[in-house]
Amino acid sequence: MTVYASHSTAAPRPLLLDIRNLQVRFYTPEGTVYAVNDISYKVHEGEVVAVVGESGCGKSVSMMAVLGLIPRPPGEIAGGEALFMGRDLLRLPEDDMQSVRGGDIAMVFQDPMTSLNPVLSVRRQMTESLRRHANMSPEQARDRAVELLELVGIPDAARRLGDYPHQFSGGMRQRVMIAMMLACNPSLLIADEPTTALDVTIQAQIVELVTRMREKLGMALIWITHDLGVVAGLAERVIVMYAGMIVEEADVDSLFDRPRHPYTLALLGALPRVDRRRDSRLNSIPGAPPNLLVEPRGCPFAPRCEYVIERCRVERPPLMPVSPTQRSACWVLAGGEGNN
């Protein structure tokens, strides 16, 4: 789904989430997987941030780490901080994290069938969260659950509350998940590719629903996706990840108008557009993503990059400012050593 929209730059808002130098490793029989490599970014109150990248780039793992959902072992948070309202989530005791998850921060996953318990009714799953986090009575939790299902567009909500996940369509299951995540009015909603398994029409409905709910509740949103078309009409700021690293960060207009990393350029070149000639072919990115069992050295995109210089192979570029609202980790397009 490809949508293009323009966003104005808003005044600075209070800082909500501050991720600093996050590193995540997985220790497997084949060796150490360097899943997330020293990433840092901020999310402000009410802001919509998109995290973009292909499968395996670390975008979902980074959010799972922030929420304390990385299985240990084989996973490990090897370094960094995740400051949420001043508290480092990476060092909170599990009891405290349970109050954060579903209360202050909620996460909608890609496949609702793996998140919803198939043997429990929707009523049981929704009211359990409300009673735990909002201290509601059974009757209050039931009434609130019906209200939430109606809010996300579930027809005949009072009756459907007693149904089980398999009795809902894929799009309706995702609406149920969104209702559950909004139950306690979180300050931050993380949506992990919530439209991937849905057809284009339902995708558009879910994007519109999340956007409407975010505006209604005033919460911040992190939207994890590989679809830049969705990003254009949804986000204010975009973070592009590759091989567990952030390679570009920009406001959405700058990213689409003036991308300054070769990987971002390649992603945009592969995006279907209404103004593309009918007989033209979509671009593809040559080569394959790097093996994350090898510790990163130099720029991870160098083997696939048309702008590569020798420095790219031996020295990892930091995120360098190219404008007040844009940073790029590229010696050539951001660092001025080649084609600008």
Task: List its traits.
about 350 residues, alpha/beta, 8-stranded mixed sheet, 12 helices, 12 strands, disordered N terminus
Task: Describe it.
By secondary structure, the chain is of the alpha/beta class. The chain contains 12 helices and 12 strands. The strands form 2 sheets. Strands 6-7-8-3-9-10-12-11 form an 8-stranded mixed beta sheet. A 4-stranded antiparallel beta sheet has the order 2-1-4-5. α7 packs parallel to α8. The longest helix is centred in the middle third of the chain and has 18 residues, at 200-217. The protein is globular and about 65 Å long. The two termini are 30 Å apart. Mean pLDDT is 87; it is low at 1-10.
What is the strand and helix layout of this fold?
Layout: E1 15-28, E2 31-44, E3 48-52, H1 59-66, E4 75-84, E5 87-88, H2 94-100, E6 105-108, H3 112-115, H4 122-133, H5 138-151, H6 157-160, H7 170-181, E7 188-192, H8 200-217, E8 220-225, H9 228-232, E9 237-242, E10 245-251, H10 252-257, H11 262-269, H12 310-314, E11 320-323, E12 326-328
Parallel strand pairs: 3-8, 3-9, 6-7, 7-8
Antiparallel strand pairs: 1-2, 1-4, 4-5, 9-10, 10-12, 11-12
Helix pairs in contact: 4-5, 5-7, 7-8
